[in-house]
Amino acid sequence: MNDFVISYLYSYTGTVLNVTLFLFFIPFFYKSLLKKKSASTGNHYTEGKITWSEYGLFAKDRSDLIVKEALVSYSYKVNGKLYVGELGTSIFRQAQLAQQNPEGSTLTVYYSIDDPSFSKGHFPPNLLDIFILVLLRFCIAIGMVNIIPAYIWWLINLN
To answer: Do 97 and 17 form a contact (C-beta atoms < 8 A)?
Structure first.
């Protein structure tokens, strides 16, 4: 498998496609990073309200997998428009997350002035976390676009 990936990436098809994708997606990556960056300064915040807080067993992403986790969501307004967000934590602190954020309680919501739908409850997001989130989306986009050309290249070069 590794030989296939390396040979595809170094092939003319793989190189041209990935350089083109990189040049195409990098402006979107950079723009998304800049939009979310203002949230990390902590200068833009508002009061939000916990609208749902529960710790229990939930189905995961429309599958048969059942996981025990906390679901805590909040709502907040920016310039009269209502937004929603979710609180998250490590798998080891799920019960505490729901206990510390009961439904109806308030919290400080830090948001991006350029994209108010991007927010973080209780404290501003770390710039590194924002960078990793945007980079991950960038890599997923490139990976998804590569699947079909890589498969076709593999079929053509199947000896």
So the answer is: no
Model pTM? 0.68
- List, for residues 29-77, the tens digit of each pLDDT value: 888 888 888 888 889 999 999 999 998 887 776 667 787 888 899 999 9
